């Protein structure tokens, strides 16, 4: 496991027993290239069963179609940050078969990572993770 991951998690107090993470199905990752992160999660006392793979591409279709509906009916809210507006502006949708895919409108500097992270979060939340302990969140200005 990379030292910088271990150090940053330790300094943030992230562990399954810290109360700041869901106790069940609370960690979702894109399956590609995350072996060292999964090792770090296991070292931080997460069970392998609690680490969920969030597939990309057409398998994100439910989140891609459901997120605008949830935003419209206000069961999902966002904080209207400029970076999200920028990344949504960089995205384009493509229909392939029955699926809708979100891709970059142009290659290079047009990033859509925050938007894809939103879709990943929507997928993770659709599995109803069990909330962790009642530890209060304290904003540290980071």
What do you see in this structure?
The chain is of the alpha+beta class and 142 residues long. The protein is 38% helix and 13% strand. The chain is built from 5 helices and 4 strands. The chain has a two-stranded parallel sheet. Strands 3-4 form a two-stranded antiparallel sheet. Helix 2 links the parallel strand 1 and strand 2. The model has no long low-confidence stretch (mean pLDDT 77).
List keywords for this structure.
about 140 residues; alpha+beta; two-stranded parallel sheet; two-stranded antiparallel sheet; 5 helices; 4 strands; about 15% strand; globular
| SS summary, helix count | 5
Unreliable sequence segments: none
Mean pLDDT: 77
Distance, first to last CA? 24 Å
Spatial strand arrangement across the major sheet: 1-2
Secondary-structure topology with pairs:
Elements: H1 3-12, E1 27-29, H2 35-43, E2 51-53, H3 61-72, H4 82-90, E3 91-96, E4 99-104, H5 113-126
Parallel strand pairs: 1-2
Antiparallel strand pairs: 3-4
State the gist of this model:
The protein is α+β, with helices and mostly antiparallel strands and 142 residues long. It contains five helices and four strands; from the N terminus they run αβαβααββα. The chain has helices spanning 3-12, 35-43, 61-72, 82-90, 113-126, and strands spanning 27-29, 51-53, 91-96, 99-104.
């Amino acid at each position: 496991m990379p030292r910088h991951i271990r150090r940053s998690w330790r300094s943030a107090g992230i562990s399954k027993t810290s109360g700041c993470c869901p106790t069940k199905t609370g960690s979702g990752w894109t399956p590609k290239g995350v072996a060292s992160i999964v090792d770090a999660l296991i070292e931080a006392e997460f069970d392998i069963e609690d680490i969920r793979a969030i597939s990309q591409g057409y398998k994100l279709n439910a989140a891609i179609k459901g997120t605008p509906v949830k935003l419209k009916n206000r069961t999902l809210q966002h904080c209207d940050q400029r970076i999200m507006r920028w990344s949504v502006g960089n995205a384009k949708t493509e229909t392939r078969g029955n699926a809708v895919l979100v891709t970059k409108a142009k290659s290079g500097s047009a990033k859509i990572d925050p938007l894809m992270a939103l879709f990943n979060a929507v997928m993770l939340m659709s599995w109803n993770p069990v909330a962790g302990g009642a530890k209060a969140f304290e904003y540290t200005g980071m």
